[in-house]
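Sample A.
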Amino acid sequence: MLQVKSINKKWGINFPTELNEFTPELLSSITANVKLPKYYCVIALCFEVKLLTFAMEIRNNKGGTSNVIPLLCKAHAEDLVNMNGLIGDKVILDRSSIERGHKLNVPIMITSNNSTAYIKEDDKLLVNIIQGKPNDPHITDPIIQNMVDNKNSSIFIVEFKIVPVNDIVACIPVDSTVIDPFKIKHIKLVN
């Protein structure tokens, strides 16, 4: 997690920096109050972007492009069995299914609207992210200094959608690995 902290507020935002930080327990707790009909599921669209890039987009009032990873957040137990998936799995579905999905407003700080508003409300925070230098002696708060030092780290911004279960083609565990038979290790040549 990467903390972003405004000096004008008594609280900050913990942005996930790794996909595995979206645990099944976390996703279930975020969507606990969503009453979902059968044959529908909630997915979290996790947008991966560098903190510095996100701040620049906010300053320039422009949206950017970023890597999007959909994660399964909530579904009925029977639907989970039918799609052979688990909460927290990456889901494979086409872009039009995501676009047709219904936007779900989940009031957490790492959504695009909430995190943008938090950063926009403090001009000093935006300046610290964009212009801050590593190990700056003028920054006395260690959380703010850590944020500046790690501004090139990727963070995740999320949005939620409700989509039909039958639009999901496959589920893949987040921590799954593929053994690549085409990757070779370089062997040191001895002269």
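Sample B, a different protein:
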Amino acid sequence: MFHLAALLSTRGEFTPTTAHQVNVEGMIRMLEFAQKEGESHGRPVTFLYPSSIAAYGMPDLATKARAGRVSEDLWNVPTTMYGCNKLYCEHLGRYYSRHYKQLAAETLSGKVDFRSVRFPGLISGVTVPSGGTSDYAPEMLHAAAQGQPYACFVRPDTRIPFMAMPDGVDALVRLAAAPSASLTRTVYNVGAFNPSADEVRARVVSAFPGADISFAPHLKRQQIVDSWPADVDDTAARRDWGFAPRYDEARAFSEYLMPTIRERYR
């Protein structure tokens, strides 16, 4: 099972109750379904869940700078409803996988094989951005390709990890196929590159010389992005199930994003 539905971070801050209903109540219904299927068929149901860097919460920029590449178990104090939802759902998945109804006479845990990828910002050349707080990078690209001006809502020096969408899809598929004996965690960081917002702008302007991209930081959205790590440590994913992104920053823009987006808006 791949449970990909979610209400994203920006919209979640305007409708936190709805975000909880979609992100948490929807998740527990899917876990219950997986549990019952596992009991019925007598074998674990592999359950793939996309978590997010929103599960992190760095207290200030100085701490963020000192922290460098952050591992899965540090700074798990999110500041958004979306981040709270994602972190709680990671714990729900671990509970269903390892501790479900642990006081029951019959052992019922182990019917859900929960596996989660904690994604950085995902950049797609196909899907239009739809409400993520990391969407300033893809929004630059799509606006430039359409010849529209764009005012970026974070500072030029803002830095968080990103990944090209094909590598995100591949990460879920690879983790789903990994032997359970090789997995040492239920939640894994993945990352690929971490340009500053100004470095993203430079690549976009290089590809679309007439692009009108400026910076108009939105204080509250900036605070959210500042609470996320500048980079993540994905050592466990690379070791346990062979995670290896095909697209570094240069390849992501030159071989995937620019050609795909140009074709979209021809």
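Observation for Sample B: DSSP finds ten helices and nine strands in the chain.
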